[in-house]
Design brief:
This protein is α/β, with parallel strands linked by helices. Helices cover about 50% and strands about 20% of the residues.
C-alpha cells in the first residue's frame, strides 16, 4: 500500500519546515506504534478557518490549535489534521517555546490522536504528553 502524507500550508508560515523530514518522522512514529500510514493530510490554516471547522463539524464555539478527523481502519492510519498557525504561535509564546518546536508538538499530537491516544482525563493527558516528548526527542530523519 502506498502511503500519502500531504501538507497544505494556506498561511505560508511553515515554509521553513522540512516536509521530507516531517514525513519520515511521522511515518516512523506510526510504525513504532505498530501501525502503517494510509492517507494523512495536514492543513495549516488561520484561526478563522479552524474556528469555522470547529463550529461546523464539532459544534464547538472555541478557538483551538488543532482539529483531527480520524479515517483510520484496523492498522492503517488515515485522517485530516487541521492546525491553526496563529494558535501555535500564541502557544509557543505562552510556553516560551520556539515556533518550530511547538508546531512539531502539535503535529505529533494530532498523529497520536489518530493512533488512539486520548487527552480528556489527567491520566490520558499525561500518557499523551509523555509520548509527545518521546517522539520530539528523536533525532531528525532525513531519508
Amino acid at each position: 500500500m502506498k502511503s500519502h502524507i500531504i501538507f497544505d500550508d494556506t498561511t505560508q508560515k511553515q515554509n521553513a519546515l522540512n516536509w521530507r523530514s516531517l514525513r519520515n518522522w511521522i511515518t516512523k512514529t506510526v510504525s513504532d506504534e505498530g501501525y502503517i500510514i494510509g492517507d494523512l493530510s495536514f492543513v495549516f490554516c488561520d484561526d478563522a478557518y479552524l474556528h469555522k471547522i470547529n463550529l461546523e463539524f464539532l459544534e464547538h464555539d472555541t478557538l483551538t490549535d488543532i482539529v483531527t478527523f480520524d479515517y483510520s481502519s484496523e492498522n492503517i492510519v488515515s485522517g485530516e489534521i487541521y492546525i491553526s498557525a496563529e494558535r501555535v504561535e500564541e502557544n509557543a509564546n505562552q510556553f516560551s517555546q520556539d515556533f518550530d518546536m511547538e508546531i512539531h508538538r502539535i503535529i505529533i499530537h494530532g498523529v497520536l490522536h489518530l493512533l488512539g491516544y486520548k487527552d480528556k482525563t489527567p491520566k490520558d493527558k499525561l500518557l499523551m504528553t509523555n509520548k509527545e516528548d518521546y517522539y520530539l526527542s528523536l533525532p531528525p530523519i532525513s531519508e
